[in-house]
Amino acid sequence: MKLSARLAAVAELVPRGSRVIDVGTDHGYLPVYLAEHGLADAIFASDVNRGPLNQARKSAVAAGVSDKITFTLADGLPETVSGEVDTVVIAGMGGETIAGIVERAPWLRERDALLVLQPQTKVQELWETLRANGYATFEVRLVKDAGRIYVIMLARSAASGAVNAPVLELLVKRRDELLGEYLDDMTARATRIRKSLLRTGDIEEARRYEAALNYYDGIRNMMGVGEKVTTVNDVFAAMNEYAPVETKLGFDNVGLLVGRGAAEVTRVLVALDVTSAVIAEAKELGAQVIVSHHPIIFTEKTVTDATINGRKLLALGEAGVAAICMHTNLDAAVGGVNDALACAAGLNSVTLLDEEGTWNGAPYSLGRIGILEQPATLAEYLPKLKLGLGAEGLRYYDAGRQVRKVGLVSGSGGDRFETAVRQGCDTFLSGDLKYDLFLDAAELGVNVIDGGHFCTENLVVPVVAKYLRERFAGVEVRISTVHTVVPSFYVG
User: Fold this and answer.
1) Distance CA 263, CA 61 (A)
2) What is the per-residue DSSP string for 266-303?
3) Which of 56, 258, 385, 482 has the greatest number of C-beta atoms within 10 Å?
4) Measured between alpha carbons, how far is residue 134 from residues 33, 141, 402 in Å?
5) In the chain, what is the straight-line distance between the N-terminal and C-terminal CA atoms, in Å?
6) Could you read off the pLDDT of 135-170 as tens digits, one per residue?
7) CA nearest 368: which of 352, 356, 354, 344?
């Protein structure tokens, strides 16, 4: 019997010569393996369903070891084996299910049975249940199987003298080689859940996950995991947590668009666009990756020096600089482009302009609606907005209404103007607005402000840079100094 990496790691932790029961044996792979190799003095296989138990019997017969295994139909740990076993294996179930099985069998603690537990989920909850029921988790290992990392826990009665310790701290002590990757997985999951909770307004629960993220950082510091090499893939994974690619619009092209994912990163350059000047800047700084808002690849079918974009793509490849581009997904992200624009516009009580879709159960949108707490005339509001955007000038239409409820879409969002009007906005802010929209605004009596494409979006660049600095303490993150707004205003 050949075991998967997961079950092989479980089998390795079963003491030689033990009397062991495999609870939830399914196909009986573990009992058959132990019997084939003479690794246990007595072997029991139990399952709550007849089908899996019969399948386990067939596996044993096929391997010629059916006489070495006792098969038991039972829900959890049967009382009948309480005096027969000293080792209990429960693998491949959810942590809550395992916890329930252990709680219903107090004789395990009384007999000081060794528990070899491999939960699929709820590792922390299982650890807490074990501690509450008088067990000490004294060893933890990680195993990777088919791309997923699993936790295996060893526990026994605390009265035995075994010293209980938290799962991650035991892994630090063991210096488990998979700990860094496991922490990355847990950090990514906790970050996704926290952002989803913030979207739905569950602040208290979001704080719990924020505390977990801080704890993971502390574990990294304990082991020095935070000093591991950062790769282009790591930077992309962090940006994908911030602005999931699944939330992009259908026409868009986002993600790691150029470069080698495994390349080491010590310096990142953040810019709104990947221009030739930005590429040269990255090369001069020694940056291995550019993180931009606008994609460098949209429709290219060839990459040659005959086109402007082709020359830029060749320059990136020749310089060994990767490009990660997060476009409409960063527009929609919590804390993304449009939230940065709402902040610069001095708005509060910010909500979604509309619902583009849902991700992890929470709606997302490219636009926002915000409230100006101190309503102002457009003439009073424009100088403050110009300063907030860092713009040379603003195109506008003044409908004679006070600015209070503002609908906004960063970049080129004129197609959302009617949505903002339907939502009762008195003012609409975006960029690249067409002449016809100004005519419509005059007909409808709505204030309109064109802040320019660059100035309504470049606001996110320092936000992204701050986020990456917090995520990668050992990586230098720079903001482009050569990429600025291109159009200028002439006022005669």
Assistant:
1) 50
2) SEEEEESS--HHHHHHHHHHT-SEEEESS-S-SS-S--
3) 56
4) 31, 21, 66
5) 86
6) 999 999 999 999 999 999 999 998 888 888 899 999
7) 352
Residue 380, token pair as written in the block: 């009073």
Is residue 408 within 8 A of residue 446, CB to CB? The reply is no
**Residue 403: strand pairing partners:** 376
pTM beyond cutoff 0.70: no
| 150 SS3 class | strand
Phi, psi of 20 (to 5 degrees): -120, 145
How many Cβ atoms sit within 10 Å of the Cβ of residue 159? Answer: 12
What would the two tokens of residue 51 be?
């089908």
Which two structure tokens, joined as six digits, stand for 282? Answer: 């990255």
Contact assessment for residue 321 and residue 259, using Cβ atoms and an 8 Å cutoff: yes
Which domains are present in the chain? 5-175 (3.40.50.150), 181-227 (no CATH), 232-330+459-479 (3.40.1390.30), 334-457 (3.40.1390.30)
User: In this predicted model, what pLDDT tens digit does every residue of 291-309 receive, in sequence order?
Assistant: 999 999 998 889 999 999 9
Total residue count of the chain as it appears in this document: 492
Comparing CA positions, the residue from 44, 6, 5, 11 lying closest to residue 25 is: 44
User: What is the C-alpha to C-alpha distance for residues 222 and 180, in angstroms, rounded to an integer?
Assistant: 12
